[in-house]
Automatic annotation (TrEMBL), chains A, B, C, D:
Signal peptide: none annotated. This is 3-deoxy-7-phosphoheptulonate synthase. Keywords: Transferase. GO terms for biological process: aromatic amino acid family biosynthetic process. Residues 1-64 form the DAHP synthase ferredoxin-like domain. Residues 84-322 form the DAHP synthetase I/KDSA domain. PANTHER family: PHOSPHO-2-DEHYDRO-3-DEOXYHEPTONATE ALDOLASE. Pfam families: DAHP_snth_FXD, DAHP_synth_1. It comes from the Bacteria.
């Protein structure tokens, strides 16, 4: 149920609605829609129907929820969410660029990559310390050692750090080192992990599962939001289809759809989305034109030596060239969106 | 087999290679790669191996074919193909915009639509006279009457006409009225139709099948090219995936891939690709940013009254607004590509 | 609209309903549901609502159509359809086995194959004279020469002939030679072809398109039925998914679903459905257990020499072994269904 | 690398190969192929190439690995694995039937279900105590209370218990109560969970992920096997495709493929695989005919009251009827396989 208060509704009237809701066993969530307050109510059907919400003082309208996701929906939270990581704003109008290697491989590699992407204009550094690999015999990441190297790269460059957390046990440790948690596609429905992340306040980049529908993806965001963490950034990274030429099919349709259904910011990962380095720049520009709030791009100092995902990693020169195309464009694109 | 001649190769040397190829039972196709001539040979393995092509005078190099498609590949035809329809160039650097209703419904409707899209800056008019419908009980199009109305719209507006041909029997009639033939997704592997179109010289917009791989799509282009018609325009219109929210999944990955593998121009159909009118503008801009040579967009004077595809049709105001965003952007995007 | 007549309804009462329907501009189709007559009405909503059908004498009930397909649905035609090809009954309780090579390659090959599958117990011979190939450079079939060889194989073995027709132009010629027309997966929505086949009375094996939904498949059957040909046999042959190990994903779910939604018989093609010969027997048995009315299996005298589809063709010994497993099983399976 | 010892190889010769392998840093795994011993070696390419394994005494042959999965492959372990749960053998020739409700809802419900499926002939009881739900607002299971009720059902009926474990933290608790751990489709690539399960000795039913390839599924089995737990049972439960009529597309192709590539037993879940109760019996029979070692079927005392998955749950009468069809059939099917 979504209750829209009148423009001139008083704080007392708002508090009154919230108390009535709680008395019915509902949870109440406040958000803004321009000058109005919106109160989202979550609970069982019977509880929601227990009252004639429209008759409460200060209430303008009350509408049933349109979607199974509530806190993630624009109906419950009409204004776009801007997530702040230091002085970087994700969803604030300027595209945010996250770049770096698939995995932290060595001190030299990650520091070199960090300085290169910083110089080219990236805002954050990506790099996996825990790697979800299909084979138990493949490199699984440097674990805490990798996180320490990322922290060192931050000290040297000022870049904020994005890195994946794969299970609740390592969550406190990962939180200590990184600025943004990443939940990988394979863990999009690892509900225990989502709930634990929901108890922190860390920004989290939630990748779409390989065959997750848009609704399921937003329901996974809902797990984090409903556990108390409002800082969810969605990340489209390609879905699995029949097409064998590309690694995945980047579903840019999802960008305008999710920006319409939800208030959460959306980042696109063209590297996994197409899987071939030479095509990543075109898909980066397409993602921004579709309305993405930023990009996460794999860049490796020497892609041909990368332990993983070398085929889809840009080298530093390609990344610099791409950044030089993004900058003027983003200014115009974002101007147009107003 | 692809033979690259030396820059200074003479016409006689080129003719000599062609004659030798024909003597081996091969077909030979000439194309340009900057200042060099490229000769593509097509035939059986044994025939191709019958000669040491590198030893012929004027030959610089000879390489086996990298793909099952030959005439459609950049290897056989390194320079991008520009297809001319009157004074419109498809693939020439400036995005070409084709717009109009799903189906020709009446004289009034198609003329109104034609004037509206013309005023907004479209280059060509689309409109189906023969409609492939999943149900035998649905409107199947006005047939020749529809083609005549399209021709009248051309006379009134100067817009070139794109319309679908569904079977070889009606091909001569459709050719009489339209400037560009359209082959629909369901007919992408209607090989008899492709061969017959290959015998004409009409430009043809070849839509990708709903679950066709990129390779299969280029092989369908190969059917038309190898039958003698070089004027093939590829059209990405969304593929079928598990995602239920959108009508199809627009595969923009296909744009940079096909532009790399093939010399043929690529047009994107965001209307079918996402299937919901309010999201079409975002996907139009994304398609151009990905490198598309143009767009084909459904526009109806009154989408809510459309006999088919109303849900995905822009109204004239939305189309005007989109065109005002495309114009400056395309200038910059195309400048950048230079 | 489906009208169920009372058990004791007279012929006059039935004729009266039909005449009333025609007077409203509806087409009326008669079928049996045990001892009752069922009258299916097809037309526009307004026409259907023009009358209170329940008030006509002899009418027991009138229900709106549940599906967009009408003549193909069990609602319109409650009794299972049995299609007779000579003395073979498809849908009659005993599984029908169609076997033979992908393509007719030579007189020797098709006659050898025919004798082999006949000896093993097959009921019909398959073999393509017109082959839909993704490449214009691949073998396209022997055309009429192939059809003549199939006819000769029929004379020698008594086996009925199933062969593909790819376009309306060749339809009269193919009809002259074959007992069952095959419409391939790529042509499932070649509506012009479907309409033309609908004007004949030939049994037709309608393959499901590579990414066709069950509903679309039944709508294609509806094209043939509504044009006047009641002899449609559905053929599940695998759908396109992300799984690369098998050629297609045989969708056996479709068998019980279609047998429930429709009265038409269903044949399964495990050869295309899995694409690897050694796994075809397991999928053949699974298809029959799921409720299929028969199988169409690729068998080649020497699969390793086959011009096409050798990888998925059984050799004669494998086919004999499979037939020896099918025979007792089918007796039991069909007894159980009784 | 797979080393096949001679039939007459001595224990000393086998030990010698193992020691040499360990000296090269490889792990060595012994299995039987009829009368021969097979030694599977796992390690880096350089380590595997360090020795000429064929020259060691008692060695007949040494072959490189054919697949990225090793311990899960038939090459490394030629004999089919039979997993014992009490006196039940999974993979032993007789199909094993696991039945019960989606979730443990109450003491009354689970005990009633247990007695019903026991009476009909089931071998094990399924029931979720921890439920992975797309919505955080849906019933998440009774947790330990549910496990206790399952244990009580075992005491009353003698049925072995299968229940899902969703994260490593609850693993010790779940192990205490259940006989077979279940890993759900959403957790197939929760690698941390797989590794922890690999450290136990509990049999584990590993469901295929919704869009997991067969190779990825076997790689997930490899995670468990390589961590030390040999008791992996694979479970096909349907993949995600474009078809909207059924919940998933049951991929029975996977049954013969996996039985060929791997020595592990395969169970099929037709309830999730098709998602509609009335079609579950047909798909159960099809799964056994395809070669499955057993079935896991949702049965609820009153499906219409089920908290989850009621639409796909058989009622007790439907389950009894299905069991009466499976019994004679399985005898014959398994006899045939001999």
């Amino acid at each position: 149920m979504v209750i829209t208060m009148k423009k001139q509704a008083t704080k007392d009237q708002i508090d009154h609605v919230v108390k009535e809701a709680q008395a019915c066993g509902l949870s109440a969530h406040l958000a803004r829609d321009g000058e109005r307050t919106v109160i989202g109510l979550i609970g069982e059907k019977a509880q929601l129907a227990a009252r004639d919400w429209r008759s409460l003082p200060g209430v303008e309208d009350a509408q049933p929820a349109q979607h199974p996701f509530k806190l993630a929906s624009r109906q419950y939270h009409p204004e776009s969410t801007v997530i702040r990581v230091g002085d970087i704003e994700i969803g604030g109008g300027e595209p945010v660029i996250i770049a770096g290697p698939c995995a932290v491989e060595s001190r030299e590699q990650i520091l070199e990559a960090a300085h290169q992407v910083k110089a080219a204009g990236a805002h954050m550094l990506r790099g996996g310390a825990f790697k979800p690999r299909s084979s138990p015999y493949s490199f699984q990441g440097l674990a805490e050692e990798g996180l320490k190297l990322l922290a060192e790269a931050r000290r040297q460059t000022g870049l904020k750090i994005v890195s994946e957390v794969m299970d609740p046990i390592n969550l406190p440790m990962v939180c200590e080192y990184v600025d943004v948690l990443q939940v990988g596609a394979r863990n999009m429905q690892n509900f225990h992990l989502l709930k634990e992340i929901g108890k922190t306040n860390k920004p989290v980049l939630l990748k779409r599962g390989m065959s997750a529908t848009i609704e399921e993806w937003l329901m996974s965001a809902e797990y984090i939001l409903s556990a108390g963490n409002p800082n969810v950034i969605l990340c489209e990274r390609g879905i699995r289809t029949f097409e064998p030429y590309t690694r995945n099919t980047l579903d840019l349709n999802a960008v305008p759809v999710v920006k319409d259904l939800s208030h959460l910011p959306v980042i696109v990962d063209p590297s996994h989305g197409i899987g071939i380095a030479k095509y990543v720049p075109a898909m980066s520009l397409a993602a921004l034109a579709a309305g993405a709030d930023g990009l996460i791009i794999e860049v490796h100092p020497r892609p041909e030596e990368a332990v993983s995902d070398g085929k889809q990693s840009l080298n530093p020169a390609m990344f610099r060239e791409l950044m030089s195309q993004i900058r003027p464009r983003s200014r115009m694109l974002y101007a147009a969106r107003g």
